[in-house]
Amino acid sequence: MSPEERAKVFKALADPRRVAIVEQLARGSECGTILAESLGISIALLSHHWEILVQAGILKKERKGQLRFCSLDHERLRQAMTMGGPSEAAKAPSDGAAPGKRRKAPTRRRSPAR
User: C-alpha distances in angstroms, 59 versus 36, 43, 81, 83, 110?
Assistant: First the structure.
């Protein structure tokens, strides 16, 4: 996941209501009407927050008849939270240095005195 994608996820989670939505959906897929009721917000406000979370790739929406269900994309959220951890370290390009070791800075040579 690129830093820009990760930033989009964190920006979407910067609102306490959206965090509450994600926490609720971590337990399983939920109908919008029931979710709005349980959070004490209107369906219009829930829809607004849903769109931001969907655009960030955190949620997936699905329509079943008249109802809209939303579920959490656990994998995308996990990728954002790893912050370049073990699962992403394997994907990162190597600069030739051993993992966990700093590369030695090049030494500066002095020019001969004139």
Answer: 15, 16, 15, 19, 58
Is the Cβ–Cβ distance between 92 and 84 less than 8 Å? yes
CB 32 within 8 A of CB 63: no
Whole-number percent of the chain with pLDDT over 90: 29
Could you give the CA distance from residue 67 to residue 8 in angstroms, rounded to a whole number?
27
pTM: 0.67
Domain boundaries, the chain: 3-82
- What's the CATH number for 3-82? 1.10.10.10
- Say what the alpha-carbon torsion angle 102, 106, 107, 109 is, to the nearest 10 degrees: 180
What digits encode the pLDDT tens for the residues 44-84? 999 899 899 999 989 988 888 777 888 888 888 888 888 76
Please choose, from the candidates 39, 31, 19, 43, the residue with its C-alpha nearest in 3D space to the C-alpha of residue 70. Answer: 31
